[in-house]
User: Which sequence fits this backbone?
């Protein structure tokens, strides 16, 4: 096990990258502590899998270094990195039984048979496949095969890290929840560094201690689920995390006031004047129906069980509110009030910090 | 689940049955007809029972030809299947070189049998052939006209040159269908090169490999044109394979009865050996 450091890493699939768009991964530096549970979150094509394959050595980065502990492994082949990886679609060795599949990585290490057998039994229990151990892998269903892949990923105990590339895509929802809980338990028990790639924020936020949000080949923010929710560093994070995502409105910010569509809002802190596209962002749960404030047009209300989502518009931009279940919707309300303490200010999509002293 | 049973569906296969009857069954029946009758010419036939079959089954000449044929097919399969797999594994997977190699590999398959025979007949000649003359110049005592071993070597090398491409191309197609994730998983699992071949590539190739083995077996077991052009079945009877012997018997000697019995036995032997290959090679697949 080891700390993983990405030092000025960048990758392009084209041999002679020209523009920004040629870079699948833009330069980034990150450190993952030994034994942490991390999630790489982002929409499809944002470079998550590329990053994962660089860590496991399936891809060599165009620039920068990968370090395990203090050791530079950038040029080491996958087999020498001692890492486990589970892919999005099940990979099983067709001609082998389930037992042989699980034992394969251990056999390749040349471990004694008794030790292999004990470890295989433990993993089989973990993925709930003790009954089918002697079945051939070929005829099994897709989610059974994926469980075998997960099991093969977890069977070695001394790996530097376990990487998961959207491993639960083919698993049905009930089993998904169960396996995720087991992965968590496994992490607590053995303390492997785990890196979990997903585009599903629920998976990322429930699995990881720290979530790395990626967009268009760039790490836009790395932090705890709470900090991603409260202080998104980029409008993408605000929009991507939370359901519904953060409301964003074009605004003119001067000192402690923001002007949106002719209405002036109070801010909790003062901001220096910025050039560029200025927006304010607020979470839907920090907005209340009101009699004065921003003009709001309600389009529809959705009851999602433990709360209600009111979908509407402010100054032509879509704008959502979240109301607790027991709170009635005021008849014909056409204004909303924003909690000043929870308004964030973004310039050209990046969050800016307020001035130290309130003006 | 209940399947509807409707015997009128048989009418739908009638056109195929008629077609197959005219293209295969009726011609085959004339052979069956010859095989149980004898004639002294004048189109007068009389019943001979299983006499020709008995004669063929007891014939030393045909036993010897069958032995040569089995040996030839065994050598061909033993060389072309592993060599084809080896070439397929080493062919470039994509890009310009992949296309180039594919075209080069396909070239021998496009040459007609008798042309292949002529090419090697000339190529191997000691007086003017590039191969034969070069070997002679190097002091190798090579002469496929007089030496049975040299004749065999020439025909085998010719067949390997002509048909290994088929095995290689079939295996290549099988290999191309393996997703990258399998190779990546094997690297993660620290599998050896042999492990990758044994547990990923070979299982994924098993389907096409079965086809390759059957095709190469049947074709090599029925080989006629190339050895006929190169050696004419000689020296002596050294390269007289079953087809050559059959043609000699049917057309050279005009022994239609024995030749017909011989054909039927020949056909059954091919069917039997193909069935054995099929059963053995698919047994693995159908295990629980």
Assistant:
């Amino acid at each position: 096990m080891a700390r993983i450091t990405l030092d000025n890493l960048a990758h392009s699939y084209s041999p002679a990258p020209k523009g920004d768009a040629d870079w699948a991964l833009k330069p980034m530096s990150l450190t993952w502590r030994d034994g942490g549970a991390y999630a790489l979150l982002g929409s499809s094509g944002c470079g998550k899998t590329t990053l994962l394959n660089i860590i496991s050595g399936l891809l060599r980065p165009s620039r920068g270094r990968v370090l395990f502990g203090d050791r530079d492994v950038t040029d080491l082949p996958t087999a020498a990195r001692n890492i486990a990886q589970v892919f999005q679609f099940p990979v099983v060795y067709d001609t082998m039984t389930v037992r042989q599949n699980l034992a394969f990585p251990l056999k390749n290490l040349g471990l004694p048979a008794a030790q292999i057998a004990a470890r295989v039994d433990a993993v089989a229990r973990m993925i709930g496949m003790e009954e089918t151990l002697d079945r051939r892998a070929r005829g099994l269903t897709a989610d059974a095969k994926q469980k075998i892949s997960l099991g093969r990923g977890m069977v070695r105990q001394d790996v530097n890290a376990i990487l998961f590339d959207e491993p639960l895509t083919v698993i049905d929802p009930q089993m998904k929840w169960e396996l995720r809980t087991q992965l968590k338990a496994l992490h607590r028990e053995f303390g492997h560094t785990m890196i979990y790639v997903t585009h599903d924020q629920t998976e990322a936020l429930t699995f990881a201690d720290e979530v790395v949000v990626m967009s268009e080949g760039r790490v836009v923010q790395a932090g705890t689920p709470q900090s991603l929710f409260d202080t998104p560093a980029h409008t993408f994070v605000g929009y991507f995390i939370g359901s519904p995502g953060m409301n964003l409105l074009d605004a003119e910010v001067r000192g402690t006031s923001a002007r949106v569509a002719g209405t002036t809002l109070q801010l909790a802190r003062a901001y220096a004047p910025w050039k560029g596209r200025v927006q304010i962002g607020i979470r839907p749960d920090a907005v209340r129906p009101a009699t004065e404030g921003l003009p709001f047009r309600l389009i529809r209300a959705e009851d999602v069980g433990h709360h209600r989502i009111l979908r509407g518009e402010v100054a032509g931009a879509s704008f959502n509110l979240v109301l607790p279940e027991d709170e009635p919707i005021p008849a014909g309300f056409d204004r909303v009030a924003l909690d000043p303490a929870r308004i964030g200010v973004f310039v050209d999509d990046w969050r800016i910090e307020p001035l130290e002293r309130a003006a | 689940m209940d399947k509807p049973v409707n015997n009128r569906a048989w009418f739908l296969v009638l056109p195929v049955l008629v077609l197959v009857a005219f293209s295969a069954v009726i011609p085959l029946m004339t052979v069956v007809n010859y095989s149980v009758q004898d004639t002294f010419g004048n189109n007068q036939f009389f019943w001979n029972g299983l006499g020709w079959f008995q004669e063929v089954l007891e014939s030393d000449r045909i036993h010897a030809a069958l032995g040569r044929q089995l040996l030839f097919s065994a050598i061909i399969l033993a060389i072309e299947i592993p060599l084809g797999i080896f070439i397929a594994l080493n062919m470039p997977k994509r890009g310009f070189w992949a296309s180039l190699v594919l075209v080069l590999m396909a070239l021998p398959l496009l040459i007609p049998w008798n042309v292949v025979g002529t090419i090697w007949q000339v190529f191997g000649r000691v007086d003017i052939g590039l191969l034969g003359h070069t070997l002679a110049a190097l002091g190798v005592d090579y002469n496929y006209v007089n030496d049975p071993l040299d004749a065999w070597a020439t025909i085998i090398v010719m067949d390997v040159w002509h048909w290994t491409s088929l095995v290689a191309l079939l295996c290549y197609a099988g290999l191309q269908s393996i997703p990258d994730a399998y190779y990546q998983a094997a690297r993660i699992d620290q599998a050896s090169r042999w492990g990758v071949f044994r547990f990923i590539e070979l299982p994924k190739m098993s389907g096409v490999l079965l086809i390759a083995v059957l095709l190469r077996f049947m074709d090599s077991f029925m080989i006629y044109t190339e050895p006929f052009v190169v050696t004419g079945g000689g020296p002596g009877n050294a390269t007289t394979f079953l087809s050559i012997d059959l043609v000699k018997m049917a057309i050279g000697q005009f022994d239609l009865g024995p030749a017909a019995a011989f054909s039927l036995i020949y056909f059954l032997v091919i069917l039997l050996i193909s069935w054995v290959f099929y059963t053995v090679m698919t047994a693995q697949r159908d295990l629980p």
